[in-house]
Amino acid sequence: MSYQVLARKWRPRTFHELVGQEHVQRALVNALDQGRLHHAYLFTGTRGVGKTTLARILAKCLNCTANGQGDEGVTSTPCGKCDSCRSIDEGRFVDLIEVDAASRTKVEDTRELLDNVQYAPTQGRYKVYLIDEVHMLSTSSFNALLKTLEEPPPHVKFLLATTDPQKLPPTVLSRCLQFTLKHMPPERIVGHLAKVLEAEGVPFEESALWLLGKAAEGSMRDAMSLTDQAIAFGQGEVHHADVAAMLGTLDHRHVLALAEALAEVDAPRLLAEVATLAEHGPDFAAVLDDISGVLHRLAIAQMVPDAVDNGHGDREALLALAARFTAEDIQLYYQIGIQGRGDMEHAPDLRTALEMTLLRMLAFRPQGAPRPAQTPLPLRSQGAAGGAAPADETPAQGGSVPEANSSSRPAQASTEERRFAEEAPPATSPPVDHEPTEKAAPALPPDEETPPWIAQEGQEGEEVEAQSEPATPEAQAVASSTTSEAQAPDPSASSPAPLEGHFGHADWLACFDSLGLGGLTRNLAAHCVVEADDGEQLTLRLDPSQEAMQAEVHVTRIREALAAIGIERRLVLAPGALPAEVETPKQQTDRLAAQRHTEAIEALNRDPHVQKLQQAFGARLIESTVKPTDTEARG
């Protein structure tokens, strides 16, 4: 006997052998068991999902003779052994008229077909007309069919099948009982292929079946045909490498390797994986599409783990990989990937575009991409330029470390207001609490450091010397109070000494900026207040409005940041109403920012040079554009 392809050999013979389409199976079985038969059925769906198979099974149910003759002989479980069942399976049942509408579109063909409708069936109980691809009929053919389709003789059943129901006239659709068949999910295809190959005695790798299931695109018939091809390609076996080579598709394991490199923020590994891919000559645009698809599935894995599809057989691997990303990383990477896909046509070559897109993901990730070393400004003398040394540098020998940034106008405005009318304030650090040991270095020129309106009038061409005398005690007191209220701790400065003992909410506010948190983690922590600390467990009360953003990765980062400053505790974030008498770090930051903004506006309004501009040119201060300096804004 000649070889029979798997798609025909394993075609279902009964409803119970049918794979998938349970919604159609249930409706037809109940209708047959209850004797509620319609005269016309329409099966719609993409190729290879079982439209004609369902029609033939239904024809067997209508004509099976194992249960006797007459209407009561109709069954939902045809025997498959009687003459009618065997004839239908072998395609020689005279009362099953199969018509390919794609090859018989003319109205004359339809009329010829309908001429025999009135005659009783020859062999079976019903005369069944199975019209495949019915949407290919011409308008005249549909018109000729309409009357018979609406009121056929009692011994006639019409079974119509189409892949494009939108092309059918509404008058035809209204006369049929319509069933829409679904795409086959890869999981169901892989499961069925495994059973078939085990029954056929063909060795296989499960990962190869996932490639076949994905390539079938929801069609079981296509999956069976591809499996036949894979068996021939692999000399009687089905292996992953053979199937990948046969299909010419990208090995999904390479895409997962790229995602792992992104999770590790490992640029060298990322480029090495792209180089490995390049050896196979892939479509780099398709690679980027696959990466974006994986990022989409990772986002779903984080938000709704049960909703992750298993289209590649990698569901468990994705769930594990999702825990290594933050939500903001995935969202940013996906957005960069989509934009990079659109920019590919402008790139020198596709590989370059892929590499630049992947590197851009790492460069702009929220949790602080590696930054180039910052070279400090050259020193003009023993002190730093402008009189202030960077926070991460050792002060110049014999110099002093200032307590505030030299460009902090709002903090200086309240302390040197009395000097504006007499001379411009020097571009040096604010007064400190101790006597300087040496004379401070001269200030930078106005175009480098000092805003133009601070430059002293009438001193063009002259270098403004920094004041070496200490400030008066009164000015020191004002500057000290202003600085402590208006300037938040600088996260770039060295971490404070480890805290010991009970950790209260005041400690939380004081050390918040030194924790070095960023992105969504910082936003989540900024909406917390300290509720309790027993020395072993620290409980933070979280604003209920931020509960949706709570995730274990953020809790871990906050706990590690606290441990770095000496607060080693189990950390619990408990959403709930916040006490009205305390403020969160976010509320404190907003309050201080508003205070600094108000002080800056008042200082500018009192500035005599600003007043002169207003009087001479009718200038006005745009308050919305007034911002605190970088040092103050970090709070």
From TrEMBL:
Swiss-Prot/TrEMBL catalytic activity: DNA(n) + a 2'-deoxyribonucleoside 5'-triphosphate = DNA(n+1) + diphosphate
Gene3D superfamilies named among the record's database cross-references: 1.10.8.60, 1.20.272.10, DNA polymerase III, tau subunit, domain V, P-loop containing nucleotide triphosphate hydrolases
Nucleotide-binding recorded as keyword: yes
SMART domains: AAA
Record key words, sorted: ATP-binding, DNA replication, DNA-directed DNA polymerase, Metal-binding, Nucleotide-binding, Nucleotidyltransferase, Transferase, Zinc
Assigned EC number: 2.7.7.7
Compositional bias segments (type: Polar residues): 403-414
Biased composition (Low complexity): 484-498
Record region (Disordered): 368-499
Cellular component, GO annotation: DNA polymerase III complex
GO term, biological process aspect, one: DNA-templated DNA replication
All residue ranges annotated as the AAA+ ATPase domain in the record: 37-188
GO molecular function: ATP binding; DNA binding; DNA-directed DNA polymerase activity; metal ion binding
Family: Belongs to the DnaX/STICHEL family.
Function: DNA polymerase III is a complex, multichain enzyme responsible for most of the replicative synthesis in bacteria. This DNA polymerase also exhibits 3' to 5' exonuclease activity.
SUBUNIT field: DNA polymerase III contains a core (composed of alpha, epsilon and theta chains) that associates with a tau subunit. This core dimerizes to form the POLIII' complex. PolIII' associates with the gamma complex (composed of gamma, delta, delta', psi and chi chains) and with the beta chain to form the complete DNA polymerase III complex.
Name recorded for this polypeptide: DNA polymerase III subunit gamma/tau
Gene, per the UniProt record: dnaX
